[in-house]
Structure formats: C-alpha cells, structure tokens
Amino acid sequence: MAFRIYTKTGDQGETSLFGGKRLPKNHLRIDAYGTVDELNSYLGLVRDYSENDEARALLKEIQDRLFTIGSNLASDPDKKMAVPDILPEDINLLEKEMDRMNDALPELRNFILPGGHPAASTCHVARCVCRRAERLVVALAHQEWVEPIIIQYLNRLSDYLFVLARQIAAERGVDEVHWHPRKSGV
Description:
By secondary structure, the protein is mainly alpha-helical. The chain has helices spanning 28-49, 53-73, 88-104, 118-141, 148-172; strands at 14-16, 22-24, 112-113, 177-178.
C-alpha cells in the first residue's frame, strides 16, 4: 500500500509536534511554524522568478534554513531532541550578500513601494510574510523557549529580501516605485 498523506488525527483541530505533544491548530507555535512554511513557499516562487543562477542557489539554501527553523519550531520544547540548527554563519551569509548587492545598487534615498515587476513584487510579499513570521516567533519566545538565533535569522532575512527586491528590479531594468507622501493642505 502506498504512503497516505492524511492521518485523520487533526480532524478535531489538534496537531502533533515532533516529540508527540498535541496542540490546538491555532496555538501560537503552530501559527509561527506555519507562517515560516508560508514564507518558504513564497521563496520558492521568488526563486522560480529569478533569472540569476547565484541568487537561485542562495534562495535554495535559504529555503533549507527555513525548513530547519520550521523543524525547530515544530519540536516539543519540553523534550531534548536532536534538531538541525541555524548557525551564525547563516546570518553572516545574508549580511555579506546584502553588502554585495548594495554596493551595486543606487543609494537608497526614498521609501520603496512594492511594484515595478512581478518578480520584485513577489519578493516584497515574501519580505512581509517574513516580518509576520518574525513577529509570531518573537511572541512565542515571550511564552516558551525559542533559540534566539531563529529570531535573528528571520530579522536579517527580511532585510535581505528587501535588498533582493531592489536587485531584481535593477536586473530587470525597471524603475523602483518611490513613495511620495501627499502634501498636506494645512
């Protein structure tokens, strides 16, 4: 018999963490790792839009790190379990890549609105989902133990996605959409 993806164990609104602990599906921990999974899916779309092989390779690595973060968040914090980890080098990689891209981009003098090209816009959506994931993980960390480096990684990743959106726009030859506040009549 083939493997079945459905178990029917979640039909009553609960799910299991790695380690067996059951939680309601609206638990903050479930929301946090579910949002990381959503982010990972958007990064797959960003990667699919990318025409730059180096960026595609790095996005694949970032997706691997997000799966690692998801596995950490989906593990019972009350049990000592061997789970993959995020390392300071993972954050350093994002910072180095941001520095490299920023060196080639025009100086940022305006707030940037999402838009200009579907690939850049998709990257901005991923950035927003990343910020939401970060907020949820921070909220979870106020209730239960969360590795601090997970929060740091998500914070840096959202910055990376902003710079990547700018890089994508530059690679596609489209102008960034600048925010121009309405002048007040007062």
